[in-house]
Design a protein that fits this description.
Helix content: 40-55%
Order of helices and strands: EHEHEHEHEHEHHHHHH
Shape: globular
Number of helices: 11
Distance between the termini: 40 Å
Number of domains: 2
CATH architecture of the largest domain: 3-Layer(aba) Sandwich
Largest sheet: 6 strands, parallel
Number of strands: 6
CATH superfamily of the largest domain: Response regulator
Structural class: alpha/beta
Length: 237
């Protein structure tokens, strides 16, 4: 089965480079290009690719809003977005995460890693660039969690009633082991790392993650991270 890809970037040379790498790879094909976010939304709805490689800073419509529109559009159901970013664009990445992106890559990523990311996301998983995974999760947690009292104020931190209620709903819905797995997913661990941590097989870890996705109605691992932090079930290290 061929994985179809749309490349969205306002720099023509960047698009040509990505398209060339993808087109030259067996099992992958480029079905569209876009020079701005608005075009990306149109092409995603028309071509219904498996994956969209989405730049963040683009004219007309930025990559974050384009991602939100694609993931929310019935016409683009099933289309997954990989955000292309750099270290100094973290604040945009957090917005894209909330918008429904399934992957994050640095623009200087190696071609082999780019191709792996496309395959992973097309298969229904989520991917965060290894070099920024835990940093992204930690920073997102700071912005996603309810406001807390600082230690300097000498008061204990307390989650909001809404977060506490959501946490209670989740713990009632999940088994104890699934809650453990959810916390590890939120910490940025892969299935193999989760298996090693819990002394279970990778296949069992994968099954637990699949159950979490179904029970929590989450699109992918990225959404599981959001759910865990917003419910106060995980906290940055």
């Amino acid at each position: 089965m061929t994985i179809s890809v749309v490349v969205a970037d306002d720099q023509a040379l960047v698009r040509v480079g990505f398209c060339g790498i993808i087109a030259a790879t067996p099992g992958l094909s480029v079905v569209g290009e876009a020079a701005n976010g608005a075009e990306a939304v149109e092409v995603a709805r028309a071509a219904k690719p498996d994956v969209v490689l989405m730049d963040v800073r683009m004219p007309v419509l930025d990559g974050i809003e384009a991602t939100r529109q694609i993931t929310a559009s019935p016409e683009a159901a099933g289309v997954r977005v990989i955000i292309l970013t750099t270290f100094d664009l973290d604040e945009y990445v957090f917005g894209a995460l909330r918008a429904g992106a399934s992957g994050f890559l640095l623009k200087d990523t190696l071609p082999a890693d780019l191709l792996t990311a496309i395959r992973v996301v097309a298969a229904g998983d989520a991917l965060l660039a290894p070099s920024v995974t835990r940093r992204l999760i930690s920073e997102f947690a700071k912005t996603a969690l309810p406001a807390r009292e600082t230690a300097a104020q000498g008061t204990a931190a307390a989650a909001s009633p809404a977060a506490a209620s959501r946490a209670s709903q989740i713990t009632q819905l999940l088994t104890e082991r699934e809650c453990e797995v959810l916390r590890l997913v939120a910490a940025g661990l892969s299935n193999a790392e989760i298996a090693d941590r819990l002394c279970i097989s990778p296949a069992t870890a994968k099954t637990h993650v699949a159950h979490l996705l179904t029970k929590l109605d989450a699109r992918d691992r990225v959404q599981l991270v959001i759910i865990a932090y917003q419910a106060g079930l995980a906290a940055p290290a």
